[in-house]
Amino acid sequence: MRIRLGDVWRSEFVRSESDFEPSYILTSLKQKVHRVKVVGTLRSPPIFGSDNSYARFELDDSTGAIWVSAFHGRVGMVERIAQGDMVQIVATVNEYRGRLELIAECIWKVNPNFWLLHRAEAARSELEGRKEYEKVKSIVMHERNVLEAKETAREIGLEPEVIESVHAEIAPREAEEDLGAEILGLISKLDAGSGVRVEDIVEGLKASHSSDEVESALGKLLDDGDIYEPTVGKYSRI
Amino acid sequence: MQDEPGEQQPPRDQTGSGEFAGEKRASQITGQEPWLSLIGTVISRNTAESSMVVDDGTGQITVRAARLPELGSLVRIVGRAFTSAGKALLDGVIVQDFSCFDVDLYRKVLDLEERVYSQEGDFHP
């Protein structure tokens, strides 16, 4: 996938649990990407290991900078480039000591106009990704559960795995909104004029929510201006 | 890719993330930018001081560089900004030859990116 380094940095790295599946990044549009195509400039001279078992350099594409490593047979590709060269790289993503890096598979020099083509194509990928994300979001919101949503996604040619990522993003937000509405309803019911004690709110919702969840939701309602504290530890609706 | 067992691991430092050479206009440069990039034309050169003045259409900036391109060349500078006597200057770590660069196409790509990556995020071609 053609991508800008800035978008690589905004992604979440997911390390594979299995030896047979590659690790990947999950972009902000919930795309699973384990191999990237990037174009950038070598900002530093390449560093070579003493026995040429690796080479390493820093790549900058004006939206982000990242270290790129090449190992063993691919070190020769790095010997043919130098600081200041503009290159296209096909690479897999890796994380080392908590920091993203790229592991090069192919490297070749490109001219500045190729960089423009890359930028235009990365913008197109972004637009296509957004359209797909909207489709997935719509499926998640209209199907009764994740299994049905996955089946619908499969039927229209979308990656079923993306459903889980989008669901994980949407579900907590919806749950939080539901809890907020429940709390507001309970306050309306119990408030005799001087506010409702936090303990009474927790007690009223203990069948479905922990006290931490309720207190966190109360904090959000306060921040949003939906409730206020007439006295410490008591809440009223605005 | 996971690290291969028994493989010699290259030294890694912690600098490869936040500081990148974002595209700047000459008129925007404050001298505080740790890294930036700029595309412009060399309008004067001073070999004695290893410096040149680059004009990008919005302003001019003096760039120090080890190798000075020909007068009139279109170049891309990747470097670090600094100030001297209250004036923003550029340490041109990298000077790229952009003589074949399609400036009209560049403007179109910038316009496309502006629309795609703007905060609204709802651009459809």
List keywords for this structure.
heterodimer; A: 238 residues; alpha+beta; three-stranded antiparallel sheet; elongated; B: 125 residues; mainly beta; five-stranded mixed beta barrel; 11% helix; globular; disordered N terminus
Task: Walk me through what this model shows.
Chain A is of the alpha+beta class and 238 residues long. In chain A, 43% of the residues lie in helices and 26% in strands. In chain A, α3 crosses α5 (160-190), α4 runs antiparallel to α5 (160-190) and α5 (160-190) crosses α7 (211-224). Chain B contains 1 helix and 6 strands, in the order ββββββα. Chain B has one helix at residues 103-116, and strands at residues 22-23, 36-46, 51-55, 60-64, 74-84, 87-97. Chain B has a 5-stranded mixed beta barrel. The longest helix of chain B is centred in the C-terminal third of the chain and has 14 residues, at 103-116. The radius of gyration of chain B is 18 Å and the shape is globular. Chain B starts with 21 loop residues before the first strand and ends in a 9-residue tail after the last helix. The model of chain B is unreliable at 1-17 and 121-125 (pLDDT under 50).
C-alpha termini separation of chain B:
36 Å
Described by strand count, sense and barrel closure, the largest sheet of chain B is: 5 strands, mixed, barrel
Helix content of chain A: 40-55%
The profile of the biggest β sheet of chain A is: 5 strands, mixed, barrel
| Mean pLDDT score of chain B | 85
Please give the order of strands in the largest beta sheet of chain B. Answer: 2-3-4-6-5
* Span of the ends, CA to CA of chain A: 50 Å
Q: Specify which chain pair forms the largest interface.
A: A-B, 48 and 42 residues
